[in-house]
């Protein structure tokens, strides 16, 4: 899979070879001045028109003659001064024209690697590569690389992170991927139709502007509310369909592969042992069909969906592969809080449930939209027991588990005695669970 | 208003920690500092309010100054209860912190999960010879702070935690 050019360059000048991004990169911000102008014109149309009529052809030409080369030069210089290099243990990114910035990203700390291709980048045959490490941000992505180069680089980074010898790392190539599941577009469409949020935003987009029109009869206020509401409705229905179209989950020795997108394609790789929490969400209207949505938390990564929609059994088998040794506890295996918990949270207390297996801590919340969160014992950073005065009166307490992805999973309203034992036992399990966990360098 | 020994935490009404290794309470310095601050600020408020109302409105109205005075008494008791509720235990593999009177919270942090140990001490705390130790893990929700320690004890705890953290170090 590696491109010969890249390969040779790496071999010739070890240990560190500086590389540059793809030459189309300077164009990525070319639209920015245009967008600023359009934004200004939309924001203040009268003023914009008045200013435009005052301009003569010569002024426009002079302005263009200054602006275009300046923008081109800036784009070129930023590209020229951005380098990246892969060393034995780090990815180094040097960037910045005036303010220099050097990021050294440790490879054994990677939590995920994302390759994304926005629509225009697909046309140009380039893609972005982002290494998710805790603390990295948007600035640390490599945009853009040639599509083949990005795949080769991902394979090399994963091979090095996995612990292959540095000399062979760039020859290992891409690990073979085995497809676990592909979500059919029809199922995805039906699942979105059956989602409350889709209808909620659509209803809001219809009702709110209508009421406003009846009350104020001012076209501007209607437009000002309708546009964002319709935008939100579109994002939650069409937008989600486009983003989650052709969702494919694959498994490879390098970890989990998630590929999705209709217009913008995204390819995410989560190496083994990086998943901090898995949540199985079951909206009310999906229950009859037995569908669930599976979300995951990876530290430092913005990816949050593992499966947009899948039958429960298949989802459980995928979860079992993501969290080795874990099984999704059956509904009957979850223990409810004691009856008196109803005094603290009427009715909804029935939605709470808890199960602890050898591998995971599973806590369920929600009565209508059920959500079951699974935390592997080895991923727990700290355990907290909290009890308010009203809860103490009824002898119940909450147990919070904090994970490295900055999420907290809570087992609510357990019997106080049970909660205290849970706190001790969970701390013990989390400590010992770590011993069985796989090393950061998963091939070493 | 006795300032009970740290081990005697009868007010929390909870004795299930009987099998636990030694809990350590906070040194009395923190309570002294908090009470002093309370008395100084609310005392000033009482006197100021009393004088202001007495001179401008009438001596009868000055009785309102008793409000902050009552607050001093209430706060005095509350600070005592809160101070007594704080305790921590260094176990073989994790640190336990327990606190709170009405809203109780107990935190367990395995040493291997610590990313950073911080010792902080503000100007007022320094004057009273106090320092607080804060533990950070990869989860921001982990709120493990031990306030009002003796600086020497804070440093000992920091060094010990760092040492234990290194020995049991684990990533994410």
Automatic annotation (TrEMBL), chain A:
Residues 79-156, 253-318, 349-424 form the YdbS-like PH domain. It comes from the Bacteria. Residues 425-444 are annotated as: Disordered. The chain crosses the membrane at residues 60-81. This is PH domain-containing protein. Pfam families: bPH_2. Residues 426-444 have a biased composition (Basic and acidic residues). Keywords: Membrane, Transmembrane, Transmembrane helix. It comes from Streptomyces muensis. InterPro entries: UCP026631, YdbS-like_PH.
TrEMBL record, chain B:
InterPro entries: YdbS-like_PH. Residues 1-22 are annotated as: Disordered. Residues 1-12 have a biased composition (Polar residues). Residues 83-161 form the YdbS-like PH domain. Keywords: Membrane, Transmembrane, Transmembrane helix. The chain crosses the membrane at residues 36-55, 61-79. It comes from the Bacteria. The keyword Zinc-finger does not apply. Coiled coil: none annotated. PANTHER family: TRANSMEMBRANE PROTEIN-RELATED, UPF0699 TRANSMEMBRANE PROTEIN YDBS. This is PH domain-containing protein. It comes from Streptomyces muensis.
């Amino acid at each position: 899979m590696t491109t010969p050019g890249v390969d040779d360059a790496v071999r010739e000048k070890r240990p560190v070879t500086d590389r540059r991004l793809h030459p189309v990169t300077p164009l990525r911000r070319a639209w920015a001045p245009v967008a600023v102008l359009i934004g200004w014109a939309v924001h203040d149309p009268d003023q914009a028109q008045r200013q435009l009529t005052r301009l003569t052809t010569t002024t426009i030409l002079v302005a263009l003659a200054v602006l275009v080369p300046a923008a081109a030069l800036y784009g070129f210089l930023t590209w020229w001064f951005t380098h990246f290099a892969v060393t034995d243990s780090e990815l180094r990114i040097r960037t910045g024209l005036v303010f220099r910035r050097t990021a050294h990203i440790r490879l054994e700390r990677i939590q995920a690697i994302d390759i994304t291709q926005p629509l225009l980048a697909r046309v140009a045959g380039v893609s972005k590569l982002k290494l998710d490490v805790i603390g990295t941000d948007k600035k640390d992505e490599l945009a853009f690389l040639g599509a083949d180069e990005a795949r080769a680089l991902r394979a090399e980074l994963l091979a090095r992170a996995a612990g292959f010898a540095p000399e062979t790392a760039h020859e290992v190539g891409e690990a073979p991927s085995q497809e676990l599941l592909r979500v059919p577009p029809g199922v995805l469409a039906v699942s979105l139709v059956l989602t409350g949020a889709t209808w909620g935003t659509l209803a809001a987009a219809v009702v709110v502007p209508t009421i406003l029109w009846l009350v104020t009869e001012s076209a501007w206020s209607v437009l000002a509310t309708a546009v964002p509401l319709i935008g939100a409705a579109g994002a939650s229905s069409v937008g989600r369909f486009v983003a989650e179209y052709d969702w494919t989950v694959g498994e490879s020795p390098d970890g989990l592969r998630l590929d999705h997108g209709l217009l913008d394609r995204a390819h995410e790789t989560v190496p083994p042992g990086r998943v901090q929490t898995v949540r199985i969400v079951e909206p009310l209207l999906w229950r009859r069909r037995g569908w669930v949505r599976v979300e995951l938390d990876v530290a430092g990564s913005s990816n949050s969906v593992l499966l947009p929609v899948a039958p429960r059994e298949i989802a459980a088998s995928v979860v079992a592969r993501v969290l080795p040794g874990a099984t999704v506890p059956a509904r009957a295996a979850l223990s409810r809080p004691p009856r008196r918990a109803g005094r603290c949270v009427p009715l909804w207390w029935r939605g709470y449930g808890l199960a602890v297996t050898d591998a995971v801590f599973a806590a369920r919340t929600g009565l209508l939209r059920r959500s079951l969160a699974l935390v592997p014992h080895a991923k727990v950073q700290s355990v907290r027991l909290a009890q308010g005065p009203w809860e103490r009166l009824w002898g119940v307490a909450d147990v919070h588990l904090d994970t490295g992805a900055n999420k907290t999973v809570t087992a609510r309203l357990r019997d106080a005695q049970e909660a205290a034992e849970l706190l001790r036992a969970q701390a013990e399990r989390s400590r010992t669970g770590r011993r069985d966990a796989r090393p950061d360098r998963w091939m070493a | 208003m006795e300032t009970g020994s740290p081990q005697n935490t009868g007010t929390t009404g909870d004795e299930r920690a009987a099998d636990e290794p030694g809990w350590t309470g906070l040194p009395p310095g923190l309570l002294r500092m908090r009470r002093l601050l309370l008395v100084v600020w609310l005392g000033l408020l009482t006197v100021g309010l009393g004088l202001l109302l007495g001179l401008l409105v009438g001596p009868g109205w000055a009785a309102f100054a008793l409000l902050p005075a009552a607050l001093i008494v209430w706060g005095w008791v509350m600070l005592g209860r809160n101070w007594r509720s704080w305790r921590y235990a260094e176990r073989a593999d994790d640190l336990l912190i327990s606190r709170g009177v009405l809203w109780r919270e107990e935190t367990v942090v395995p040493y291997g999960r610590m990313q950073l140990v911080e010792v902080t001490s503000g100007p007022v705390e320094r004057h009273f010879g106090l320092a607080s130790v804060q533990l950070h893990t990869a989860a921001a929700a982990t709120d493990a702070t031990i306030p009002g320690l003796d600086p020497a004890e804070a440093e000992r705890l920091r060094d010990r935690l760092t040492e234990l953290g290194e020995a049991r170090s684990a990533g994410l």
